[in-house]
Write a structure and sequence with these properties.
alpha/beta; 30% helix; 7 helices; Spherulation-specific family 4 protein; single chain; 256 residues; eight-stranded parallel β-barrel; Spherulin4
């Protein structure tokens, strides 16, 4: 029998085994700080943030306290704290209270201008953001205007729960959980979030015991959140008792 290969015909090769699908690499978690007490009251907390830039994605600046906002005049203590964070490479977000969609548009934009002029913020954290489909265009108008005021501004919509899916296109990140550890342990994630990368979602959980910190981080990864804030306190204003531990855990992920 003639050798077919000698005549120039290609030799037959066994079929290759199909390649296994690539395993998606989940980005490391980072911290999104909902906002500590005024820097004059909590200087330690603000100072620690500037010393952990690799672990902190952003921190919220709330100058006026209850109700949020930049205040009626520049605050030198907040100016100093914000400047230190920005110099360290941490985004500073001005807090704007949407009051579940009832806040007048003009008031929000006036406050945004003050944040930009006085504190040079890197973006905005829209507190008490509505979740309904009917208010999506109202929120989209606000976020689009903020982006026009400050090109490249990082916009976070703080719903605290899963909103109508269209909100995912109106901002850089959504806070889809804000609440207690008891609720977080048994929480469910909306199916539509799987269509977006983990970098788009934020989880904020209070009352997390130190012994359950690793479990909380696993839940965040399982639910597809890329930015988190866990604390053993009952509010956001004070630094968690295990701050060094959580920064160390997240810092190791970043360095890897």
């Amino acid at each position: 029998m003639p050798d077919l290969r000698a005549g120039g015909a290609p030799a037959l090769r066994p079929p290759r085994a199909p390649l296994a699908p690539p395993v998606p690499v989940q980005p490391p978690l980072g911290l999104g700080i909902p906002g500590y007490a005024h820097p004059l009251v909590a200087p330690l907390e603000w100072g620690e943030l500037a010393r952990a830039p690799r672990a902190v994605h952003w921190s919220v600046l709330n100058v006026a306290g209850s109700g949020g906002g930049p205040g009626s005049r520049p605050d030198p203590h907040c100016l100093q704290a914000a400047g230190a964070l920005r110099c360290a490479g941490v985004r500073v977000l001005g807090q704007l209270d949407l009051r579940w969609g009832r806040r007048p548009f003009g008031e929000l934009i006036t406050e945004a201008h003050r944040y930009l002029e006085w504190y040079k913020v890197d973006g905005f954290y829209l507190e008490r953001c509505p979740t309904e489909r009917s208010l999506l265009q109202t929120v989209r108008r606000t976020s689009t205007t903020l982006g026009a005021l400050s090109p490249g501004a990082h916009i976070v919509l703080a719903h605290g729960t899963h909103p109508y899916p269209g909100y995912a296109e109106a901002a850089d990140q959504l806070v889809t959980f804000a609440g207690s550890w008891t609720d977080y342990r048994w929480s469910q994630v909306a199916e539509w979030t799987a269509e977006h990368p983990a970098e788009r979602f934020v989880h904020q959980v209070h009352g997390v015991p130190r012994s359950h910190l690793e479990e909380a981080m696993r839940i965040a990864r399982w639910h597809g959140a890329g930015t988190v804030y866990f604390t053993d306190r009952r509010s956001w204003e004070a630094m968690p008792g295990y701050w060094d531990e959580i920064v160390s855990r997240i810092g190791r992920q970043v360095s890897e």
